[in-house]
Amino acid sequence: MSLPTADPYVPDHGDRSYAVRRYDLELAYGVEGNRLAGEAVLDVEVLERTDRLVLDLAHLGVEKVRVDGARLARHRHRGHRLVLTLGEPADVGAELVVWVRYSGSPRPLRARHLGDAGWEELADGVIVAAQPHGAPTWFPCNDRPDDKAAYRIAITAPAGYRVVANGELTSRRRRGSSETWVHEMDVPMAPYLATVQIGRYETTEHGEVAGVAVRTAAPAGLDLDGSLALQPAMLEAFADLFGPYPFAAYTAVVTDDDLEIPLESQSLSTFGRNHADPDWAQVRLIAHELAHQWFGNAVTVAGWRDIWLHEGFACYAEWLWSQAAGGRPTDEHAREHHARLADLDQDLLLADPGPELMFDDRVYKRGALALHAVRLTLGDEAFFDLLRGWVGEHLGTSVTTDALLSFADARTGHDVTGLLRPWLHDTDLPDLPPAS
Q: Around Cβ 28, how many Cβ atoms within 10 Å?
């Protein structure tokens, strides 16, 4: 019998027959030797009558499995799929508790067209970059972007290392040569946004902005006066433009290693030492990752074909920050990138770019330009009211492009659907409206 695929962009991941409502993870990690031991408890709700649950877990050995609320006939772990066969079918609405004990040496998972993602060793610590398919490298999950759950993540690591994970740090206790850190994320979160960062970090508190604690975890001695010093002002500006920041705190983790690109996760972002410089090339990335807290984390795509709802919005936020900070106007950025896109191949369909192009830079820039076209047509007041309403009414949910279009038409009283049709469904690049 074939195993399920929840999203064609990420084959052989996810199961639509059930949803996870809460993950409770108890992990122990040895930095020396890269050994992870875990116990995961998943509170599950059955969505379709089924006699099996398929979880995703890669490169780690399963030691024991239990299902409370149903009889577990057997389990099989092959590749990165953990198949739990039930003794009899579970009906829609049934609530089950799945317990998995596992261990091994975690490493990234490679997928065709998507590259590597997941748990990765650094020179002295760990980084977890799970988008879009790397969550199974460190915990058993229902790996689909629209299966959002609450999380408790407890990690024991050697003393001297700081563990940063999603949500609020609710407890920290030292026992001998190890220390246990417990983080909790109550706002529903997709598996790929769950993360763990382990390193010899010191935390700098930047104070509260609009009731939100802003902090940076970085190696001792790292100069935080460059791009990272702008985070409080960015958060204040984006809260004004997009609505209240959607989580209790925002943390930036800065690794002692250089990173090619920053990493997005819910309530925190991860940067390399190289991203701390004050030049625009790095500042825009700080703004981009912060904007994902609204567009990508609080409001998350139901399927990867709609990735522009994350990347186009975050890219546009870079240009908004530029103007808000007294730099180049947003319209100037937009017209420069429109000219650049016009010189590139016209073979990208923004509404469905395909897995090979889902992270193509044209998705980012064309998505941002589509938003700028809406803004130029509606005017600032209606446009930013639309953004604030979109986030405010969809916090913690999974969304689609069609949902955005329906919402925009109703919210603004304009034919936003018609305006965006060529940007989304034609490959040729539309013209931008004239600046007002």
A: 16
> What's the pLDDT band for 436 if we cut at 50, 70, 90?
confident
Rg of the chain taking only CA atoms, in angstroms:
22
Give which of 378, 35, 40 is closest to 194, Cα–Cα. 40
Measure the CA–CA gap between 101 and 340, rounded to whole angstroms.
51
Distance CA 73, CA 52 (A): 10
CA distance 292 to 284: 13
Residue 86 has pLDDT above 80, yes or no: yes
Mean pLDDT of the chain: 97
Q: Which amino acid, 269? A: S
As a whole number of angstroms, the distance between CA 242 and CA 261 comes to: 24
CATH code of the domain in which 67 resides: 2.60.40.1730
Domain at 237, CATH number:
1.10.390.10
Whether the pLDDT of residue 1 is over 80: the answer is no
3-state secondary structure of 143: coil
3-state secondary structure of 417: helix
Same structural domain for residues 364 and 221?
Answer: no
Among 199, 224, 257, the domain boundary falls at 199
The answer to whether residues 263 and 195 touch, using CB atoms and an 8 Å cutoff, is yes
What is the reported pLDDT for 45?
98
DSSP letter for 2, please.
P
How would you label 181-212 residue by residue, b for 16+ Cβ within 10 Å and e otherwise?
bbbbbebbbbbbbbbbbbbebeebebeebeeb
Q: Please list, in sequence order, all residues whose beta carbon lies within 8 angstroms of the beta carbon of residue 232, skipping any fewer than 6 positions away.
A: 206, 207, 209, 214
Task: Work out the average pLDDT over 405-414.
Answer: 98
- Any bridge partners for residue 126, and if so which? 121, 198
Give the CA angle between residues 183, 188, 30 to the nearest 5°: 35
Residue whose C-alpha is closest to residue 322's, from 336, 307, 341: 336
Same domain membership, residue 206 and residue 183: no
Domain span at residue 390 reads 302-425
Mode of pairing for the β-strands spanning 168-175 and 178-189 = antiparallel
Q: pTM higher than 0.85, yes or no?
A: yes
**Which among 216, 279, 213, 223 has a CA at the least distance from the CA of 253?**
216
Q: Is 406 helix (H, G, I), strand (E, B) or coil?
A: helix
Nearest 5 degrees, angle CA 161-CA 163-CA 165?
165
